[in-house]
Design a protein that fits this description.
The protein is built from 15 helices and 15 strands. The protein is an alpha/beta fold. The protein has a nine-stranded parallel β-sheet with strand order 5-4-3-2-1-13-12-9-6. One of its GO terms (molecular function) is glucan endo-1,3-beta-D-glucosidase activity.
Length: 507
């Protein structure tokens, strides 16, 4: 039997620890979770399967909130390990206050998908108190209780039930220590709701929006920019950003009714990147400042002045710009355009090198047409494709097809009978042709310009039997700076470790 020398117990564990350090996953994902609200009030969004794959493979987002229980979205997120919050429509709340209806809702909207789709919260309605609808308000907690009972009866124990609230639930919020629920709602409505959360260990969902609370004087305070802060005379605490102040006002209100221990989740917060002429503070630079600093702040784990070291899972509003919303600013809350290129980068993309630099402050037009790849550089992502811009005309796209197919690029797949012929549309055929040209011409940004009608995508547009090719990046391109040297050092180290472990045995 093999015997270990006396030094073995110390040597091997040390070597194993070094190996674990070197080979442990090093993603840019945050220590704490950043989520996103996936709204669908638009007619130009990619299919849910493409969205789910994009979020899983190209971003560090680990949780998504949707505003319904869309079965296509629920199916698309199966086996992605991304947590999903689904929403009960406001109008369904009165009926769901009865257990049989709640059981039917769970049977139709949860059980067919869970646990393959990692549903973690059922949001019952959205900002019900703000509707001032007495029937909805009265039935909110009974519906929450009925849905929780329905989940229990179905032996589903890992889904919480909650309801998002706007900050209109507070009658006072400045300074944060004065935070209290609206008179008449504190003990009759919120104390019972918070008791439900305590009993079921579910979170209280709030939607803090400094965007709706700032003035010209407090803009920097709202955007997490350097400012003098706001002092709370009661607690002696100084607030350097409005987000913390709003959360602490909610906490103060919860504490006043005896439930300061209930967890808080930020279900919505954001800042639009484009607004009307009367909204000078609605621009790309301010959206980047708010959401970018928000991500850093949430990921710091330092909490708020009244809740130090507490963490708050936070959902940014929103994933996409939604073109059917009623106003310009409402249409431009998205982190991404419908073609999946970033409006701006808040440090949630995995492939930083392919993304390139963040937009400079004051640039209200967003990233370049290529999705942010520095001009003239070869893209280095292992999976980038060239597709038409969402606003490109059929005439321009047909010209692209004609040009590509005249250069000798194989266009047989988009001809009748080919695997990419259907759907038989100019846009679909142009997408295939433009990508084929981009891939075979050198994989440069300018190969996807097409007179400013092309854009580089980070999501595979392949579908069914239609496969879009892509060039794998060269080995040198996948390492930045000293990373290539580090890889070589790691290989040497592994050889040495294996040698030392093998020679530490005596037979």
């Amino acid at each position: 039997m093999a015997k270990f020398p006396k030094s073995q117990p110390k040597l091997v564990p040390l070597l194993l620890l070094l190996l674990l350090f070197l080979f442990s996953p090093r993603h840019s994902s945050a220590a704490y979770s950043i989520g996103v609200n996936y709204g669908t009030v638009a007619n130009n969004l990619p299919p849910p399967s493409q969205v789910a794959n994009f979020l899983k493979t190209q971003t560090t987002i680990d949780r998504v909130k949707i505003f319904d229980a869309n079965p296509d979205i629920l199916k698309a997120f199966a086996n992605t390990n991304i947590s999903l919050t689904v929403t009960v429509g406001n109008g369904d709340i009165p009926a769901l206050s009865k257990l049989p209806a709640a059981q039917s809702w769970v049977a139709n909207n949860i059980l067919p998908f869970h646990p393959q789709t990692k549903i973690n919260i059922i949001a019952v309605g959205n900002e019900i108190l703000a509707t001032s609808d007495k029937s909805l308000i009265a039935h909110l907690l009974p519906a929450m209780k009925a849905l929780k009972s329905a989940l229990d009866l179905a032996n589903v124990t890992d889904i919480h039930v909650s309801s998002p609230h706007s900050l209109g639930i507070l009658s006072s919020s400045e300074p944060p220590s004065s935070g209290r629920f609206r008179r008449g709602y504190d003990k009759l409505i919120f104390a019972p709701i918070l008791d439900f959360h305590r009993q079921t260990k579910s979170p209280f969902l709030v939607n803090p929006y400094p965007f709706f609370g700032y003035t010209a004087r407090t803009l920097n305070y709202a955007l997490f920019k350097p400012n003098g802060g706001v002092f709370d005379n009661v607690t002696g605490l100084n607030y350097t950003n409005m987000f913390d102040a709003q959360l602490d006002a909610v906490y103060s209100a919860m504490k006043k009714v005896g439930y300061g221990d209930v967890d808080i989740v930020v279900a919505e917060t954001g800042w639009p990147s484009v607004g009307d002429p009367t909204q000078p503070d609605v621009n790309l630079a301010n959206a980047l400042s708010y959401n970018g600093n928000l991500v850093k702040h949430v990921n710091s784990g330092k909490g708020t002045p009244l809740m130090p070291n507490r963490t708050f899972p936070t959902y940014i509003f929103a994933l996409f710009n939604e073109n059917l919303k009623p106003t310009t600013s409402e249409q431009n809350y998205g982190l991404f355009k419908p073609d999946l290129t970033p409006v701006y980068d808040v440090d949630i993309l995995r492939d930083k090198q392919a993304l390139g630099p963040s937009p400079t402050p004051g640039n209200a037009t967003g990233p370049s047409s290529s999705g942010g790849v520095p001009e003239g550089n070869t893209t280095t992502s292992t999976s980038t494709w060239c597709v038409p811009k969402s606003g490109a005309s059929d005439e321009a796209l047909q010209a692209n097809i004609d040009y590509v197919c005249s250069t000798g690029v194989d266009c047989k797949p988009i001809q009748d009978g080919g695997p990419c012929f259907n759907p038989n549309t100019v846009r679909s055929h142009a997408s295939y042709a433009m990508n084929a040209y981009y891939q075979t011409s050198g994989h440069h940004q300018f190969d996807c310009d097409f007179n400013n009608t092309g854009v580089i995508s980070y999501t595979d547009p392949s579908y069914e039997a239609c496969t879009y090719s892509f060039q794998a990046k060269k080995l040198e391109s996948s390492f930045a700076g000293g990373s290539l040297k580090r890889c070589s050092l790691v290989k040497i180290f592994v050889v040495l470790v294996c040698y030392m472990i093998l020679h530490s045995f005596t037979f």
